[in-house]
Amino acid sequence: MNAFSEAVNQTPGGAKTTSPLLETVNLTHRYQRTIALQSLNMKLYPGRIVGLLGPNGSGKTTLLKILAGVLSEYQGEALINGMRPNAQTKAIVSYLPDVPFLDDRLRAGEALQLFARYYTDFNMGKAENLLRHFRLSPDQRIQAMSKGMREKLQVVLVMGRDAKVYLLDEPISGVDPASREVVLDAIISGYSENSLMLLSTHLIQDIERLLDDVILIDQGSVKLAGEAEALRHQHNSSIDELFREVFKWSEN
Fold first, then answer.
1. Which alpha helices (H) appear in the chain, and where do they start and end?
2. Residue 31's pLDDT is what?
3. In sequence order, what are the beta bridge partners of 11?
4. Mean pLDDT over all residues of the chain?
5. I need a surface site. Which of 54, 92, 104, 116 has the fewest CB within 10 A?
6. For residue 105, with 0-12 CB atoms within 10 Å meaning exposed, 13-18 middle and 19 or more buried, which class applies?
7. What single-letter DSSP state applies at residue 102?
8. Can you tell me the distance from the alpha carbon of 113 to that of 106, in angstroms, rounded to the nearest whole number?
9. In this predicted structure, what is the pLDDT of residue 35?
C-alpha cells in the first residue's frame, strides 16, 4: 500500500490533490468460499489513465462492479468522490461492463437517445462524432451488428458521457486486432483530463501506450503498482514484459 500510494496518488504535475476521486479501504469480497478481493487499498486521482491488470479471476471485474454500484455485498469501503456507490455516484461514473447491455431491438441512434434521456452528462455531439468515427449508422439495428460493431457502439455510449470516472472492463477484448487502435483512439478522444479512467484488460501490449499508472492485481490483492514510466525504468522492461514476469506462473 505504501509504495502504491507514493507512486500513484499524484497529479501529472507531481502535486497531490486534496482528495481522491476513487478510494478503497480494506475492500473485501467473497463468492461463497472464493475470495475475489482481499483487503484492497488504493487511492486514485483525476487526470490519470490507470491500467488494472491481472490474470483471469484476479478480481478486476469484481472491483469494477463494486465501484460502478452493480455489486453491493462487500466488506470495507469503496468510495467514489468521497461517497459509497449509490445513485449519486452512478451519475458521475460511466461504466463499460464486460458483457452486452443493449436491447438488440434498438437502432444505434435510439440507443444514443436513450442514454441522453437517462444521463444528464451525456454529450450527444461527442457521441455522434464517435459513431461516425466507427462508421456506424444511427439507423442500423443492434441485432444486425457483428460482435465487434456492438462493442464499438457500447464504447460510443460510455465515452459519450462527460463523466468524472470511467470504468472500462476489457473494452477491446472482442474487437479484431486491426480495429483495436481505432477503438483506443476513440476512448482517448472521449476522455477528459479532469476525469479518472480505470481500464481493465489483459491485452496489455495494445493499451500500454495509454497508461499513466498501472495496478497489477492477483487473487484480489495488489501485487505491484505505480507510474507506468517509473516502473519501466525501474525494471528495464515494458509493462507487458513486466506483467509476464510477475504472472509467469499463472494460467492466464
1. 2-8, 60-68, 87-90, 108-118, 124-133, 147-159, 177-190, 204-207, 228-235, 239-246
2. 87
3. none
4. 88
5. 104
6. exposed
7. S
8. 10
9. 87
